[in-house]
Here is the input.
Amino acid sequence: MNDKRDRLRRLPSVDRLLSRKRAQELVQQYSRELVVDSIRDCLESSRERILEMRGGDYDEAELLDDVEMRLQLASCPSLRPVINATGVIIHTNLGRTLLSDAAQQSITTLGGAYNTLEFDLKAGKRGSRQRHASQLLSALTGADDALVVNNNAAALILILSALAMSQEVIISRGQLVEIGGGFRIPDIMGASGARLIEVGTTNRTRIADYRAAVTDETAIILRVHASNFKQLGFVEQASTDELTSCAHEYGLLAVDDLGSGTLIDTAQFGLSYEPTVQDSIRAGFDLVCFSGDKLLGGPQAGIIIGKAALIARLKRHPLARALRVDKLTYAALNATLEHYRRDEALDCVPVWRMISRSLEDIEREASLWAGHVGGTVIAGESAVGGGSLPGATLPTALLAIESSAPDRMMAHLRACDPPVIARVSAGRVLLDPRTVLPQQREDLLQALKSFVAD
Ligand SMILES: *Cc1c(COP(=O)(O)O)cnc(C)c1O
Here is the structure.
């Protein structure tokens, strides 16, 4: 207790820190008001750390480092590029996935010019924006038609609102997942006005459980792909064929929320097999929905594909207007889908380039970094991430840097321009080349050298 009180007493005052030469330089660069605010914030968080018994004593130089870092961050836009050295390929906090060069180019071109978003050149009058992605999506997946909305959560809400309002939707208890950020499938379903009928148990749901739950009120049998967790052991789920046959036998719709929705077989990279979008269409689902920015590697979007008559009903629903996407999304999505059509996704779509990057190539890059900044190259794992392929990792090479204060090193890296995001394990800062772009190498090395030099 006394120790805490002593340490609190030893913290310098705002005025004392402000009188230091370094603080005065910051006042010149920013303003007195900003520097004072930043000093107050730093002292406050030091006080909290002492009260929670976290961290050691802070000397004045460290406090002023912290003050400067806060000022730097506060003067930058809040949304800015970073270097992702975590190795997590689909990193939701870091913007999920990167767009291909062609997709970026398409955004620039269409964002800076009037365009045919809703204009039919042949007829010379209004056209539908939905036509832009539907042809390519149908060609790639084998579905009749497609609709693009804001994200996959929106896709699910639209499907349930338009096709199961005040009716019942049957789902297995093993699929009531939380998709991240605190959002849960049952809550999303609730927001649509559909009634959720849970069947089976957490680990086992048979087709008989679905049959027993069908009533006059049932509209949909919904499957939600367990995209971000894995069940092992005494586990059973009805097969996709069983689900679609059962639904159709009772005149119900079979809907598949695939989550990530891959068009490419993931097993060829030593990962587990992730059911593809084509598999779901082949299994006879009436509608299938998935994200645009997970394994597809495009912009944020919710893609709905399936039977033409159902897609037409979705398009007419008022929510479709509220959930529609803009020209930039179509621009990026179409350019991304084109890569798949031309069979060049592995080379052009960053998610797939990172997944398929060879271990030798990654090792070479890690060794090159070590040659510049020291540290050792060790074997490790990169995660695919983003609620896809749960637990699946790819063997990688990491640059490991020993540090007596790894958290301070991480904070320093985050304060660089561009910021570098790494990970810490057992007192070492770990950097994974898999998710670092070739053009980011110099900035990364600069950031690492600046810490060593500190
Ligand atoms: C990620 C995910 C969603 C939500 O997709 P967003 O595009 O992020 O809205 C919905 N369902 C499943 C199964 C998911 O994995």
The domain at 101-344 is CATH 3.40.640.10 (Aspartate Aminotransferase; domain 2). Residues 107 and 345 are 18 Å apart (CA to CA).
